[in-house]
Amino acid sequence: MKFTEFMGNIRKQELPHVFLLSGEEHYYIDKAKEAILSRLFPKGQGSEDALQKADGDMELSALLANIESVPFFADKNVILLNGTNLFRDSKQAGGDSKELDELIRLLGDMPPYSYVVFIAPYKADKRRKLYKAVNKAGLILEAEPLRAWNIGEWLQGKLRSLNKDMDREAYAYFAGAVSMMQQISLAYLDKEFDKLALFSKERHITKAELVEVFSGVPEVSVFALLDAISARDSKKALLLLHRQLADGTYFTVLVALLTRHVRQLWQAKELMKKGIRGKALAKPLELNPFIAEKLGRAAAAFPEPVLKRAMLMLIDADYTLKTGQAGNEVLEEAVITLCKGKD
């Protein structure tokens, strides 16, 4: 199940004795682990005697013994296997070991004092008998990496927890800023929103506050430049390019983000030829629906030959800048081509 549903079950229902936290989004896994341990050990009481942690996997014989052992100095056994490999993709035809078969049987009939938390930082193989046993006996979190196009659920949940909201202008900036990130770090966003809540007296989070939060992220600081290119405003785009260079943004970052933007404009044009328009562009482009719709409107103004020329120029710029054969003028030329170029 997804994070929101999983956390709701942790808070409301009687805890099962088996958990699997799987997937590549470590932020969700960490939050789920904290929630489970908080339920098992209110205010941290008793964890020093009851909690057993292992990195990787225990020997199956040891795991079985630990599950069945009656605790002496605590009222429960909690076994946490961090980084288990038991749920990885397996090409076996079905020949699992006797100990694994015994573990599967035991997970379906756990002692009332024992709990097992499996943490698998990868996409678990749902075909495995062990996965099916955990799914039947306990709770499974599927912590898929978050993308710009589906970050809305996280954002709404975070705003509710802070008793804050955003106006349309602030949301548009947030969506654009996140779409610029090569990799979304929920841990970073979580921390920055906590800071905003701490220092902002108003209920509404403003665009100006978000600009300050993201000003130190190089990919996001280029956002205004790409907006100017989308509008084909050469004067503003060149001014912002020079500002980025003066602020110390590495040309490698600029080339990568300009190339990505041109590719997205080109992809949007191709998708629109197939009748995919507006917010429907979000999923194939892996963008927030608001940003995808905006990108589609911008793409309509770019002739395809201009995008092709600009892409080739940026590829050349990457090589000539890295080898010292050219200066920042090659970036200026690419920006001018995008803004002024014709068929």
How many helix segments? 18
- The CATH first-level class of the largest domain comes to Mainly Alpha
What is the total tally of β strands? 7
Shape field:
elongated
What is the radius of gyration computed over CA atoms, rounded to a whole number of angstroms? 26 Å
Description:
- The protein contains 18 helices and 7 strands.
- The two termini are 50 Å apart.
- The strands form 2 sheets. It has a 5-stranded parallel beta sheet, with helices on both faces. It has a two-stranded parallel sheet with strand order 6-7.
- The chain has helices spanning 3-12, 26-40, 47-50, 60-68, 98-107, 129-137, 152-162, 168-180, 186-199, 207-214, 218-221, 223-230, 234-246, 251-273, 282-285, 289-299, 304-322, 329-340, and strands spanning 18-23, 51-55, 77-82, 114-120, 139-143, 165-166, 204-205.
- Strand 2, helix 4 and strand 3 form a beta-alpha-beta unit.
- With 343 residues, the chain is α/β, with parallel strands linked by helices.
- Helix 1 packs parallel to helix 2 (26-40), helix 8 (168-180) packs parallel to helix 10 (207-214) and helix 14 (251-273) packs across helix 16.
- The chain folds into 2 domains: 3-143, P-loop containing nucleotide triphosphate hydrolases (Rossmann fold); 153-340, Zinc Finger, Delta Prime, domain 3, CATH 1.20.272.
- The mean pLDDT is 88.
Quick recap:
The protein is an alpha/beta fold and 343 residues long. It has 18 helices and 7 strands.
Spell out the key features of this protein.
2 domains, 343 residues, two-stranded parallel ribbon, Rossmann fold, 18 helices, alpha/beta
